[in-house]
């Protein structure tokens, strides 16, 4: 007998009804694609129709070649020629770049700019971005900090050239500084005053004026001074001749020995002559100060009896020129001053970028750290800053590229006498190429060096962008 063939199992339920079989996504893919023939990838436009892609890219390539490639190639070629552009000097221009004192100063200043500006701007931007989240008017505060970015470098340079004026009546920085200084330090009573030539008062060293002879209680001392413009004493009271002291005191008068119209007599207190109040008078005996006094509103003073037989001295502090503030644009402070103006402009840029990154920090992460017992400084240092590291990198790299090319602020703010002390590479490039004794060979060499300095920063930035794009 033939062996019966076994029947394959089916999904039919009892009773003869057929149960539907589930179809999976793998079955659909297998049925859709023919067996052994995988779906080919779509060909790119560059491969399938390269002439169309080239047509669209041609204008951009022409502009790129004309504005970027050609200037770079020509600058490299021009850096090997002499000032006239006809003689080949090889690396001679590069040797001059690294041996010229002005260009070496520019290198040093560029290093200072690259180190200080990105770090300070990023730090201030981070502080502003964190603090503005905790104040009520945070948006208005951000607007104020970012507002300098709307001002051009030229306008900012003109503004800060006025801010740093040395005259306190014109420069805001020195006006504030002098105001603070005069609050805590005494100013001179009558700056510029001095005795008449061949008078009783004579210079005694250090700017002091001392009487040639000793004084007596019975004979009041007359200490005339000159050298003050009449307008400076217009509001002063008339001078009064001192009378002998009743109890042996030494008396005297200090006044401006000048009458309008020249009608007065030397060493005599005339009717229209003005008193000099607030002048300190010292009685000196044996090289030591035995008594001091200060002139009153009428110019008179009174010393105790112990001053009998001493010489009178008017200290130099009475006549010192008023404090004029700080020479912001001098050879010492010109570079820090210009850096301050740049930070004023770009701290807002750093703040806006960091604030945008801060808005994306998960609040749950911060709250979890606080719940675990972390204080605000620990949350900021161990969570906020590490999370914002990519944004901080963008800010630092952008500012490094910008400060390597800084030119306008230095050229506008630095006065001619201290411009060499504030020199940077971009400014030196301009001065070498188009200044006195122009040498475009040296200028082109500086341009090539600037390009080589910027390239590593750009490469780091491009690699960082590609790394973030792959995430």
UniProtKB/TrEMBL annotation:
A Pfam family recorded for this sequence: BPD_transp_1
Gene3D superfamilies in the record: MetI-like (1.10.3720.10)
Membrane topology of the entry: Multi-pass membrane protein
Localisation per UniProt entry: Cell membrane
Pro residues: bias regions: 1-12
Region: Disordered, residue numbers: 1-44, 189-221
Family: Belongs to the binding-protein-dependent transport system permease family.
Name of protein: ABC transporter permease
């Amino acid at each position: 007998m033939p062996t019966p063939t076994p029947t394959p199992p089916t999904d039919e339920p009892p009773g003869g009804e057929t149960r539907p079989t589930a179809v999976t996504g793998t079955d659909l893919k297998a049925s859709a694609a023919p067996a052994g023939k995988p779906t080919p990838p779509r060909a790119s436009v560059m491969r399938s129709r390269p002439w169309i892609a080239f047509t669209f890219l041609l204008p951009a390539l022409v502009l790129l070649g004309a504005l970027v490639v050609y200037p770079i190639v020509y600058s490299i070629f021009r850096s090997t020629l002499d000032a006239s552009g006809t003689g080949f000097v090889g690396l001679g221009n590069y040797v001059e770049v690294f041996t010229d004192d002005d260009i070496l100063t520019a290198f040093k200043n560029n290093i200072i700019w690259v180190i200080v500006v990105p770090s300070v701007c990023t730090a201030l931007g981070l502080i502003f971005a964190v603090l503005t989240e905790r104040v009520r008017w945070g948006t208005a505060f951000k607007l104020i900090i970012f507002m300098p970015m709307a001002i051009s470098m030229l306008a900012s340079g003109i503004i800060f050239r006025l801010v740093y004026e040395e005259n306190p009546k014109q420069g805001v920085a020195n006006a504030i500084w002098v105001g603070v200084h005069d609050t805590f330090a005494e100013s001179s009573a009558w700056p510029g005053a001095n005795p008449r030539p061949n008078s009783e008062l004579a210079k005694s060293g250090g700017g002091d004026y001392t009487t040639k002879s000793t004084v007596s209680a019975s004979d009041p001392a007359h200490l005339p001074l000159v050298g003050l413009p009449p307008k400076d004493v217009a509001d002063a009271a008339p001078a009064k001749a001192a009378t002998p002291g009743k109890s042996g005191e030494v008396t005297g008068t200090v006044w401006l020995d000048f009458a309008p119209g020249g009608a007065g007599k030397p060493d005599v207190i005339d009717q229209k002559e003005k008193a000099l109040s607030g002048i300190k008078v010292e009685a000196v005996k044996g090289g030591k100060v035995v008594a001091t006094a200060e002139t009153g509103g009428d110019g008179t003073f009174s010393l105790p009896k112990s001053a009998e037989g001493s010489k009178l001295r008017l200290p130099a502090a009475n006549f010192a020129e008023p404090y004029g503030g700080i020479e912001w644009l001098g050879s010492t402070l010109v570079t820090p001053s210009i850096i301050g103006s740049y930070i004023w402009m770009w701290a807002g840029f750093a703040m806006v970028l960091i604030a945008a990154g801060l808005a994306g920090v998960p609040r749950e992460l911060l709250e979890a750290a606080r719940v675990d017992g972390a204080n605000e400084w620990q949350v900021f240092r161990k969570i906020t800053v590490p999370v914002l590291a990519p944004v901080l990198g963008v800010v630092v790299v952008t500012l490094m590229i910008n400060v390597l090319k800084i030119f306008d602020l230095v050229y506008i703010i630095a006065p001619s006498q201290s411009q060499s002390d504030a020199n940077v590479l971009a400014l030196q490039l301009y001065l070498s190429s188009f200044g006195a004794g122009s040498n475009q060979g040296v200028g082109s060499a500086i341009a090539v060096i600037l390009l080589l300095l910027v390239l590593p920063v750009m490469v780091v930035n491009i690699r960082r962008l590609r790394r973030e794009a792959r995430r």
